[in-house]
Amino acid sequence: MKFDGVGESFGALVRTARENRQWTQADLAKRLGPLLGREVNPLAITRTEAGKRPVPLDEVAALAHLLNLELDPLLNPPRVHGTAGDLHERAEKLRDEINRGHQQEVELMAVYASVSQQLRRVRTAKDELERELQAIERAIKDADG
Predict the structure, then answer these.
(1) Distances (CA, A) of 39 to 6, 34, 42, 84
(2) Global pTM value
(3) pLDDT digits (tens, 9 = 90+) for 112-123
(4) For the CA atoms of 124, 126, 128, 130, what is the dihedral angle to 10 degrees?
(5) Exposed, middle or buried by CB within 10 Å (0-12, 13-18, 19+), for 100?
């Protein structure tokens, strides 16, 4: 079994998980430091994500814990068998599935953006109503008192 590219694959996993959390490399370094009991330079994260540095095992474990990474596929990739034609066909089907997933993701992101905007409007209206109610309740208290 070859392990060529495992560092780049691990780096890509780290980058994707970090970006999905909307963390900067500095954010990740700050969160990682306490788990390791030492300061982590954001440049180490940059180099890790690029597959340009060997990552100590304790750091791999801490990153996996912090980012909820599944490491088994890196170390035990699925075995692929079949003729070249079968493999090409399967690869094409996977590309199609990935493209459909991407399209669904884009559609859901648009829905999310729309819903988020509506939620902001509802919250703003609710906040305005609460302020008006508080003003009225103060006026009632003053009138009664």
Answers:
(1) 25, 8, 10, 48
(2) 0.56
(3) 999 999 999 999
(4) -150
(5) exposed
